[in-house]
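Curious: can you check?
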Amino acid sequence: MAVTRAGLVYGVGALRAAARGDRMMWAVHRAALANGIIPVVPVGVIAEGYRTEARGDRLQSLLDGSEVEELGDDGARQAGELAARVGTTDLVAVEVAGAAARRNCAVIASRQNAMKEAAGLLGHELILYAV
């Protein structure tokens, strides 16, 4: 039986692809919006995207159609604890995995072992579309 997901979470790879004008990433984003799917972008992903990408105008265009997921105190604690269990310093990857698990979403990101391992520890079968 195929696993279905309720929506999309964008990781840093998705923002990087959008910033470089990747046609497939923009097509997926437009298709999601056209079908009533509002992609979720954890706040750490946004910080990392702006840290590493020069095309802030394209990032902002992607974010304008997305929901930003705030982290907050509890979220930060949970991300830190999960990162410790995974044995990674990549808090953004863990934050993406947590958002995907909480919301039953697929992820668009670059391939990351920490993200997959974190999702597994949360009991979420990660469906990852690599960009």
Q: What stands out?
A: The longest helix spans residues 72-86. Residues 7-130 form a domain with the Rossmann fold fold (CATH 3.40.50.1010). The chain is about 60% helix and 15% strand. The beta strands are 7-10, 40-42, 67-69, 105-109, 128-130.
